[in-house]
Specification:
Length: 144
Amino acid sequence: MPSTPTPNRDRFAERWTARAAAVVVILAAALLLGTAAADAATVGVLADDSRNPFNNVVPNFDLFGIQFKAAWQKLLAGVWGLGFVVTAFSAVRAVVSLARAKRGGYGVAVAEQTEDAKWAGIAFGGLTMLGVLVGGIVAIFPSH
């Protein structure tokens, strides 16, 4: 017997559709911006005569000394590691709640906990790929 859509299932589908559309829009924008930057660099359309005060300025932490440079890198590494711990606990909690909901036969709770488990996995994967993503953005938008 086919199941009829419930309001919760409809909201679940709408949220996932909206999230998928947002991801597609972001990826398309990044692709277009990356292509436009590459085209501008190859054609030589970069406006050297513009009055942009940030032309040829690159971020550099050497001005503040080695202690500052080492401190912010340690802080970044610590926060990044803490992010792994938080997302790992979130994933474990979501999977345990999902198993409990399945065992109890709660259909709505299963859908919600499945979504939580998926987002915990996506967050953990995003943290894992963070270095590569930042490196890719820096490569797409070079400083000079």
